[in-house]
Write a structure and sequence with these properties.
Radius of gyration: 26 Å
Shape: extended
Structural class: mainly alpha
Oligomer: single chain
Number of strands: 0
Largest sheet: none
Order of helices and strands: HHHHHH
Number of domains: 3
Distance between the termini: 87 Å
Number of helices: 6
Strand content: under 5%
């Protein structure tokens, strides 16, 4: 029985070591990720989120789910825009100066993922409300061939202007 308990303890220790190793590997991989592209995305996504939120509210297709932001919209939509854009921009600038820190890199990636989901939510809401129409398969194929023809004509014009055709 003691041998079995010893093996269980050794197995638990091995599992614990592997989990800790995996966590260290994941966290360590963030050292190589630059924070700046994620901070830029957060800035742009925040501005898009602000304007899309106001648009959906103006057409009565949605409500602001954040109570603080909803109160600001009720007071004045421009105040909402100002607080939202200045607040997130200030945070991005602050994090920019700390961009080499691991916590900044992890935060930038996580906040970017959150904004990605928020923008996806806006997009899907637009489809649901009939405000965004996705092209049909035939429209996509037609647009693809039009783009190919346009690029071909552009290349032909470019090459003929330099005397290669």
């Amino acid at each position: 029985m003691n041998g079995l308990l010893q093996r269980i303890k050794e197995h638990k220790a091995l599992i614990r070591e592997r989990i800790i190793g995996a966590v260290k590997t994941v966290i360590g991989s963030f050292y190589h990720i630059p924070a700046v592209p994620f901070l830029r995305f957060v800035f742009v996504a925040n501005v898009l989120d602000a304007f899309l939120t106001l648009h959906w509210i103006n057409i009565r297709a949605a409500e602001e789910s954040n109570p603080l932001m909803a109160a600001l919209i009720d007071i004045d939509p421009l105040l909402f825009l100002f607080v939202k854009v200045v607040g997130v921009t200030s945070a991005c600038v602050f994090l920019y100066f700390l961009r080499s820190h691991l916590a900044t890199k992890i935060s930038a990636v996580l906040v970017a993922l959150v904004y990605y989901v928020v923008l996806l939510y806006h997009f899907l809401g637009g489809i649901r409300e009939g405000l965004i129409r996705l092209p049909t398969e035939n429209e996509l194929i037609s647009n693809f061939y039009e783009a190919i023809e346009f690029v071909g004509n552009w290349l032909e014009t470019l090459l003929s202007s330099v005397g290669m055709v």
